[in-house]
Amino acid sequence: MKHSFSPLPIQQNNDEKVVRMHLAAAYRILAHQKMDDLTYTHLSARIPGSDTYFIYPFGMLFEEVTSSNLLKVSLKGEVLEGEESQYNQTGYVIHGSIYKKRSDVNAIFHLHTVAGIAVSAMDCGLLPLSQFAFHFYNRVSYHAYDSLALENQRQGEKLAQDLGQMKALFLRNHGTLTCGSTIQEAYLYMHFLEQSCRVQCAALSGNQKITLPTHEVCEEAVQDLRDFEPDFGIRDWTALLRRLDRTDPSYRE
Ligand SMILES: [Zn+2]
């Protein structure tokens, strides 16, 4: 039997139920795109202005996340709602430290994709060699690798300091992180960052001289792409939600 669902409201990002559903959808969409990493890496979202955020229970696969099994966590890392299967200090330190420092950020995505880690390890960093990468021209930060996990507050503060006012960060030899004022913005930046990294890995493996646009052209492209704001991500996110509702709406539960 075919079910139909009313579309999730996009703008009600101050409604806890709606934020939970969008965040659960983000986990499912990235699982579908094979951008997860077993039970590691994490996405979070908060209601604008609040001092709590939602994150998955460590130990779950992205494809198992639903709106009701998300944890509600304080900026200090205390679990206020939901059950954790295993304490996830790393997740709480990364997300809590950024939310504390950036009142404009309401969603944070951290991934370990192969292409993202490969570029994080390149001394040259992200090169402006595709249109995807122009989004991040002089607008991406780097955080040096600092032990296996971000296990204490000092490391979290350093990561938030390295992110600065950017919306994308490479964690050297580790992975990528994007953030946004909404879940769809954090998602679209992650999509463009991942595509940039895949293109860079492919281009650099071709044993050919690479052509890069001039600084002026890159800056102009950045400004052109900024014109897509403030509705950044809404069109694509709505389309992805339609597909999720057709294939597996259990994220809503
Ligand atoms: Zn990580």
How is the secondary structure organized here?
Blueprint: H1 16-32, E1 42-45, E2 52-55, E3 71-74, E4 79-81, H2 89-101, E5 107-111, H3 114-120, H4 131-134, E6 141-143, H5 153-163, E7 168-171, E8 175-180, H6 183-204, H7 215-226, H8 234-247
Parallel strand pairs: 6-7
Antiparallel strand pairs: 1-2, 1-5, 2-3, 3-4, 5-8, 7-8
Helix pairs in contact: 2-5, 3-6
Figure out the total of helices: 8
Uncertain residue segments:
none
**CATH-assigned fold name:** L-fuculose-1-phosphate Aldolase
Name given to the CATH architecture? 3-Layer(aba) Sandwich
Q: Would you identify the CATH H-level superfamily? A: Class II aldolase/adducin N-terminal domain
Largest sheet: 8 strands, mixed
Distance between the termini: 18 Å
The average pLDDT score comes to: 91
Count of distinct strands: 8
List the secondary-structure elements in sequence, H or E.
Answer: HEEEEHEHHEHEEHHH
Write down the domain tally: 1
Bound molecules: zinc ion
Shape: globular
By CATH reckoning, the class would read Alpha Beta
User: What is the structural class?
Assistant: alpha+beta
Question: How would you describe what is shown here?
Answer:
The chain has 253 residues and is α+β, with helices and mostly antiparallel strands. Helix content is 40%, strand content 13%. An 8-stranded mixed β-sheet has the order 4-3-2-1-5-8-7-6, sandwiched between helices. A hairpin with a 4-residue loop joins β3 and β4. α2 (89-101) packs across α5 (153-163) and α3 crosses α6 (183-204). The longest helix is centred in the last third of the chain and has 22 residues, at 183-204. Bound molecules: zinc ion. The site of zinc ion has 5 residues, from loops.
